[in-house]
Design brief:
single chain; Hypothetical protein af1432; Beta Polymerase, domain 2; 9% strand; TGS; GTP pyrophosphokinase
């Protein structure tokens, strides 16, 4: 759907849309020249779809296109193009991913319910409940009715719909990708806002779904609009690097020979980085010039064990760089990405990165959850899809505990923004946000265990509950029922401690602790204590952003903007979890930064 869709208005943007284009001229030109060929506009879509799914019937796509074109007739994007170009482009992105016919039909119709007189009931009657569910899942709530809560309500609704059918998220990602491609016609402030929202929610969603072929382009276009000078610098570097192609050709040729000698059947290709990846490594390493190592991919034709044989062949050819080997086959990433990563001293003693994977791993790395639709006969799809969507089930679990959509959106951003670690507890592997503590783990294992945890052992040693867990830690959680293990359960307080909110990382743990305090009153705590603890909670939340307060003046201004009669009332509201400290801190930082 378009980022600012409206009825009959100029909606959206145009092709690689740099700022400064004139919408009126483009609209007039589009009226005179569209369609630009004598062929049916949907022909290219049908051809791409049947190129992957040869036995599909294109008639339903043509019917969906005809309805979408009729419904959107008279509507235009900000670029001046007819609005139908947007849903057609979204469907094309889905077709290139290899999605099924149902997804493409929903993509063609995804804005009709929101922006035209076409109702969800009519759509369900014409195309069935499956298509109607997908379209409803990506339909935005009306800003005029929901106000500032509209964005959070929309994302919450989309995630819930995706719990029933993940294709909702794939259509949304394709929708945002086309809008990002055509963002240049909007104002600088709008470009920044939309790019930031894309970076915070949709790019991480794309990563969790494992769809790297979309994520790479989203990353690059976000960089274009948030860091245009850096984007231009990296693009110049990629365009101008001398001898790059010849060097990679030599690396590829020598790697192929080494693999043949080791009797490993594999395809070797150059694997250049995209712009955002180069920029991120440049910034992370503090390099003054773009940090862009040559890279190749080795895709073996055989089982996973052949990947290790290929690794041996590569290391036998070139000396490996110490500390640069990662085995994501034995320990896949949280989005089930699997591959071997190594760096070697290649020809002319240059460092070369090497990715080694099977064909099935390569498909999964490129298309993620979409691979199950693109390669439906590959086998193992249902089990892989279920495992890949474990994170979505966890989100839906704590979604029910979110007090309101704004809290849900903030928690979702935190969950998506964090790197992940895997720890072991109760004989199983548990996925947690990086920096998580034993309390986070306890709540992940069960709400009852979280509410009553008293102590922990990490790798066999007693440790504070606030300890940050690390990848591979083996963790034991003890409650008041574990007095036999030497813990003084009678002396311990019942239920969670409020200070836990200062160090837990997972949204689930934060919400469950807040829920407990909402259900259990605390007689005897004074307003003065609440003010003091509310201020401390804000201080801890500010520390996560490496910020602090020199005076109460910014807090006082914020309490006025939020409609509180005084600062003390705001601090009590923070203590009572009426308003989330992270939300206060985010608004506080915006307030301070915008006044500078």
């Amino acid at each position: 759907m378009d980022v600012d869709a409206g009825h009959g208005a100029a909606l959206g943007g145009a092709l690689p849309t740099q700022p400064g284009e004139l919408p009126l001229a483009r609209r007039l030109r589009s009226l005179l020249t569209w369609p630009t060929t004598e062929t049916d506009p949907v022909t290219h879509l049908v051809r791409a779809h049947r190129g992957i799914h040869a036995n599909t019937d294109p008639s339903v796509l043509r019917r969906a296109y005809t309805i979408a074109e009729n419904m959107h007739r008279g509507q235009f994007r900000k670029s001046g193009e007819p609005y139908i170009t947007h849903p057609l482009a979204v469907a094309q992105i889905c077709a290139d991913l290899g999605m099924d016919t149902t997804t493409l039909v929903a993509a063609l119709l995804h804005d009709t319910v929101e922006d035209t007189r076409y109702t969800l009931q009519a759509l369900a009657e014409d195309f069935g409940p499956e298509v109607a569910h997908l379209v409803d899942g990506v339909t935005k709530f009306d800003k005029a009715f929901y106000g500032t809560a509209a964005e959070a309500e929309t994302i919450r609704k989309m995630i819930i719909a995706a719990g029933k059918d993940v294709r909702v998220l794939i259509i949304k990602l394709a929708d945002r990708l086309h809008n990002m491609r055509t963002l240049g016609v909007r104002s600088p402030a709008s470009r920044q806002r939309i790019a930031r929202a894309t970076q915070e929610v949709l790019v991480p969603l794309c990563d969790r779904l494992g769809i790297q072929t979309l994520k790479r382009e989203l990353d690059d276009v976000v960089l274009l609009h948030l860091e245009p000078d850096e984007h231009a610098r990296i693009a110049r570097h990629v365009h101008d690097r001398p001898g790059w192609d010849a060097y990679l050709a030599e690396v590829v040729a020598r790697a192929r020979v080494a693999l043949r000698r080791s009797r490993v059947d594999a395809e070797v290709t150059p694997r250049p980085r995209h712009l955002y990846s180069i920029w991120k490594d440049t910034v992370a390493g503090g390099h003054s010039t773009p940090y862009d190592l040559p890279r190749i991919a080795v895709v073996v034709d055989g089982p996973a064990t052949d990947c290790y044989a290929a690794l041996g062949a590569i290391h036998g050819l070139w000396r490996p760089v110490p500390g640069r080997f990662k085995d994501f086959i034995a320990s896949p990433k949280n989005n089930l990405y699997r591959s071997l990563h190594t760096s070697v001293r290649g020809p002319k003693d240059h460092t070369v990165e090497v990715l080694i994977r099977t064909e099935e791993m390569h498909r999964s790395a490129e298309y993620g959850i979409a691979a199950n639709f693109r390669f439906p006969l590959a086998g193992g799809g249902a089990a892989a899809r279920a495992e890949q969507l474990d994170w979505l089930r966890r989100v839906l679990d704590w979604e029910q505990d979110a007090a309101d959509p704004a809290q849900f959106l903030q928690s979702l951003r935190c969950d998506l923004a964090e790197a992940q670690i895997q720890v072991f507890a109760d004989g199983r592997q548990v996925l947690l946000p990086a920096g998580a503590t034993p309390v986070d783990l306890a709540y992940e294992l069960g709400t009852e265990l979280g509410d009553h945890c008293l102590a922990t052992r990490i790798n066999g040693r007693l440790a504070p509950l606030s300890s940050e867990l690390e990848e591979g830690d083996v963790v034991e959680i003890f409650t008041e029922t574990d007095a036999a293990n030497g813990f003084d359960a009678d002396a311990a307080p019942r239920g969670p401690r409020r200070e836990w909110l200062g160090f837990v990382k997972s949204p689930h743990a934060q919400m469950q602790i807040s829920r407990w305090f909402a259900e259990h009153t605390e007689p005897g705590i004074s307003i003065t204590d609440k003010v003091r603890l509310g201020r401390a909670t804000i201080g801890l939340a500010l520390r996560k952003h490496n910020r602090g307060l020199a005076s109460d003046l910014p807090l006082l201004r914020l309490s006025e903007e939020l409609g509180y009669p005084d600062l003390e009332t705001l601090l009590v509201a923070v203590f009572d979890r009426v308003i989330e400290p992270d939300a206060v801190v985010r608004q506080l930082i915006d307030l301070v930064d915008h006044r500078q």
